[in-house]
């Protein structure tokens, strides 16, 4: 297979993944019946709490965090980085002022000719090394925790960035998609929600369980970000990104697209509503195509995808056929004869 064909194949496979996923899920949900005791019609959008999960006027720090990773990150910023930065700035400022006063030219007609001092040199090398090591330990832990994969069986929400709104797909609950648009200012105010952050349909999820968020861009690169949940993940066309989100308590948490994605980039906010599991399931049942405990047989007929960078010899590249091998040999510059 030629390189160009492989690339075409890869982008085609991406498009087919989205199309066939929709039809497969639709087919799977038709076969599933609602549980007999399911009550439909009980979901009422939660009223946001003032100052929770949203920016507040005049604030300069992080928003209060509602996920364990967020609490750790905030602790690291507030109690590790800020004190160290402040202490170093004050120390340097003190040294500068002291040198300017104590060693000014007027007070020292005969300047000292000292060129080095071993003790001081050892101290000013070792001390910064120890400070950096002290920062590195919690920093690496924070970094590693952010890359932890979702536990097996975690339920998935697929977030699609569109120009300029969001789509939330629930493959484990029937595969329906919720399309979320920003509310106009008057409607947001009437609903008691912050303007430019309120949406018509929220991403509703259960609180207290790990959730696998997958992001993809339908057109250009977007970024799915919710500051109070310590979550930001790019939504890139043709590529599925994945990250875990864990929301400690029910609430409404607002975010925005954080990748400049075009004319209405500023008008595609995110509203996540975390509910207790029972209320979340209630909400699922009210969605067209929403099912509980659906045995989603998502046997997606997606052909094995070739990496787009499938040049011969690259990791994951298909075994080159003889024609390609000849091409590569011919293309190599003859350096030995020169
Ligand atoms: Cu965007």
UniProtKB/TrEMBL annotation:
Q: Which residues form the Cytochrome oxidase subunit II transmembrane region profile domain?
A: 54-150
Which positions, given as ranges, span the membrane?
80-101, 122-144
SUPFAM superfamilies the record matches: Cupredoxins (SSF49503), Cytochrome c oxidase subunit II-like, transmembrane region (SSF81464)
Task: Identify its membrane topology class.
Answer: Multi-pass membrane protein
Q: List the EC numbers from the record.
A: 7.1.1.9
Report the protein's function.
Answer: Subunits I and II form the functional core of the enzyme complex. Electrons originating in cytochrome c are transferred via heme a and Cu(A) to the binuclear center formed by heme a3 and Cu(B).
Instruction: Return the protein name.
Output: Cytochrome c oxidase subunit 2
The species is Croceicoccus marinus
């Amino acid at each position: 297979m030629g390189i160009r064909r492989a690339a075409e194949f890869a982008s085609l496979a991406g498009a087919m993944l989205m199309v066939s996923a929709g039809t497969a899920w639709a087919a799977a949900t038709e076969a599933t019946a609602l549980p007999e005791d399911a009550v439909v019609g009980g979901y009422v959008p939660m009223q946001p709490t003032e100052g929770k999960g949203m920016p507040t006027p005049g604030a300069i720090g992080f928003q209060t965090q509602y996920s364990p990773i967020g609490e750790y990150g905030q602790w690291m910023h507030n109690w590790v980085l800020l004190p160290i930065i402040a202490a170093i700035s004050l120390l340097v400022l003190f040294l500068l002022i002291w040198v300017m006063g104590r060693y000014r030219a007027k007070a020292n007609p005969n300047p000292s000719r000292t060129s080095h001092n071993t003790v001081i040199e050892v101290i000013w090398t070792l001390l910064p090394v120890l400070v950096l090591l002290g920062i590195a330990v919690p920093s690496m832990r924070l970094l590693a925790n952010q890359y932890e994969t979702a536990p097996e069986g975690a339920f998935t929400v697929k977030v699609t960035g569109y120009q300029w709104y969001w789509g939330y797909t629930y493959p484990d609950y029937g595969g329906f998609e919720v399309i979320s648009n920003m509310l106009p200012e008057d409607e947001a105010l009437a609903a008691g929600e912050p303007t430019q952050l309120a949406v018509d349909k929220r991403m509703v999820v259960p609180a207290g369980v790990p959730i696998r968020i997958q992001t993809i861009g339908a057109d250009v690169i977007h970024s799915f970000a919710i500051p109070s949940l310590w979550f930001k993940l790019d939504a890139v066309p043709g590529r599925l990104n994945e990250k875990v989100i864990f929301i400690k308590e029910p609430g409404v948490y607002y975010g925005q697209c954080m990748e400049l994605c075009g004319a209405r980039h500023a008008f595609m906010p995110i509203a996540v509503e975390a509910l207790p599991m029972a209320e979340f399931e209630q909400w699922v049942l009210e969605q067209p195509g929403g099912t509980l405990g659906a045995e989603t047989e998502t046997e997606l007929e997606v052909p094995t995808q070739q990496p787009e960078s499938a040049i011969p010899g690259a990791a994951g590249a298909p075994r080159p056929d003889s024609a390609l091998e000849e091409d590569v040999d011919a293309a190599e510059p003859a350096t030995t004869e020169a």
